[in-house]
């Protein structure tokens, strides 16, 4: 493809930022629901840890089940004015209305387990519509191999920025208002209810809702057999396997970080500040990995990212055993440089697989593929908690006494060596990945030629026989 042809498909910066802004409300759902809501409802809400654990487990199972269903809906049914915006708009009432009930429970009154479960199911359904459709929309916006990496890289940068904002929101508002646990959660509910409509308005106003290849009127609809046939491509399973592994690696670091901060580094306070540093460096690191991807291939850049994470985790071992707090903070910052890059590169790779599948079947399955990406990451995060907590249980670790010296070395090994193995596996899975820059360019050329042929047939005059 010529350079001018490539340039035509590059998104203007204002459209790129408008598209990525929707990642902020996506983050505003995930972070509070998993971090702030369970303690509030278990403690002041009076439901207890066991009930809250069961309710949130059911909600996450529901979330995983609805992923592929939403993906098929997003691909199969299209609004006459566009492919994606209708489904994103549908998420607004599901998320905003639910936020007022879920994030603002009655103060001083016992919470209802049934009401909490119902609200979580509605919230997760809206979240799935928003997140899945938003990623599928990104695959529609540009056919360029490197521009897709840039788009999803900016998306991950905005996601990390949203996480920083959510983490600091209580402290920022606390400078002017007096907050308890109810107030903290309510502020996040108001944030979601205000930011989601605003970012949707910005994105809908500035970003087009159209396919990079024209939608053909007689294009076949997705059936169950076609959905299953789309999962026969081995390269897709390799991407999903890496997504699961990344979810495990990141999840183990996240789920055991506070144990390490308290039990190994002796930090009673300040662990959240280190997390802020981690996310700041993740924003800084993504452009670096996009630069590597442009000069090599996406899968090679992904292998280098995983190798970098592997080395950082190995370097943490001597620091955790003999090093100082400042050395620990420095290595956490360096590890943060690689945090968002795997998700960005993997989503750009699955967007290329959408093209490959459309060449094969003449059906765009972006929603379905990105839904399975979401499911894979959730499976990885769930497995991370299961694996890390099981290993810690085997060594007799007590989370109430993380500083126990008898368990110190075991805790360090779980925190570092398990991610090392996981990232090493990612490197092996990505070896000889077949969908390279040249192959993707040929797929795009095939789709353009096919669409031009269909347009020519539609415009050809009908002669009488």
UniProtKB/TrEMBL annotation:
Keyword Transmembrane among record annotations: yes
Coiled-coil features, chain-numbered ranges: none
Biological process according to GO: carbohydrate transport
Pfam families: MFS_2
Alphabetic keyword roster: Membrane, Transmembrane, Transmembrane helix
A cellular-component GO term for this protein: plasma membrane
GO molecular function: symporter activity
SUPFAM superfamilies reported for this sequence: MFS general substrate transporter
Segments traversing the membrane: 16-37, 49-74, 86-105, 111-130, 158-179, 185-207, 235-261, 273-292, 304-322, 328-346, 367-397, 409-430
Source organism superkingdom: Bacteria
Family indicated by similarity: Belongs to the sodium:galactoside symporter (TC 2.A.2) family.
The protein, known as: Major facilitator family transporter
Native source species: Hyphomonas hirschiana VP5
Species lineage: Bacteria, Pseudomonadati, Pseudomonadota, Alphaproteobacteria, Hyphomonadales
């Amino acid at each position: 493809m010529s350079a001018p042809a490539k340039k035509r498909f590059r998104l203007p910066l204002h459209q790129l930022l408008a598209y990525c802004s929707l990642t902020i409300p996506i983050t505003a759902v995930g972070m509070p629901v998993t971090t702030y809501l369970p303690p509030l409802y278990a403690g002041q809400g009076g439901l207890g840890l066991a009930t809250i654990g069961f309710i949130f487990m059911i909600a996450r199972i529901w979330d995983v089940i609805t992923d592929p269903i939403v993906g098929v809906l997003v691909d199969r049914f299209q609004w006459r004015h566009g492919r994606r915006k209708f489904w994103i708009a549908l998420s607004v009432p599901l998320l905003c209305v639910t936020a007022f009930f879920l994030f603002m429970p009655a103060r001083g009154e016992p919470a209802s387990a049934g009401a909490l479960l119902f609200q979580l199911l509605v919230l997760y359904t809206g979240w799935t519509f928003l997140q899945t459709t938003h990623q599928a929309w990104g695959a529609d916006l540009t056919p360029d191999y490197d521009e897709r990496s840039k788009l999803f890289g900016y998306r991950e940068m905005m996601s990390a920025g949203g996480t920083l904002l959510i983490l600091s929101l209580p402290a920022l508002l606390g400078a002017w208002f007096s907050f308890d646990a109810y107030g903290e959660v309510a502020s996040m509910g108001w944030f979601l209810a205000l930011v989601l409509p605003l970012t949707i308005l910005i994105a809908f106003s500035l970003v087009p809702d159209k396919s990079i290849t024209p939608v053909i009127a007689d294009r076949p609809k997705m059936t169950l057999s076609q959905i299953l046939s789309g999962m026969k491509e081995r390269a897709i399973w390799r991407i999903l396997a890496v997504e699961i592994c990344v979810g495990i690696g990141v999840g183990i670091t996240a789920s055991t970080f506070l144990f390490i901060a308290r039990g190994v580094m002796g930090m009673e306070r300040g662990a959240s500040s280190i997390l802020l540093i981690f996310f700041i460096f993740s924003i800084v690191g993504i452009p670096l990995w996009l630069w590597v991807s442009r000069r090599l291939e996406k899968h090679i850049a992904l292998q280098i990212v995983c190798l970098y994470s592997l080395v950082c985790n190995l370097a943490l071992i001597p620091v955790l055993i003999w090093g100082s707090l400042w050395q620990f903070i420095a290595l956490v910052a360096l590890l943060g440089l690689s945090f968002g890059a795997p998700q960005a590169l993997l989503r750009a790779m699955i967007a290329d697989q959408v093209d490959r599948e459309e060449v094969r079947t003449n059906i765009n399955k972006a929603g379905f593929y990105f839904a399975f990406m979401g499911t894979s990451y959730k499976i990885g995060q769930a497995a991370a908690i299961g694996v890390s907590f099981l290993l810690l249980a085997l060594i007799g670790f007590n989370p109430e006494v993380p500083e126990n010296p008898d368990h110190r070395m075991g805790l360090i090994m779980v925190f570092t060596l398990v991610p090392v193995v996981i990232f090493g596996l990612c490197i092996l899975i990505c070896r000889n990945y077949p969908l390279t820059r040249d192959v993707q360019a040929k797929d795009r050329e095939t789709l353009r030629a096919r669409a031009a042929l269909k347009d020519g047939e539609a415009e050809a005059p009908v002669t009488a026989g």
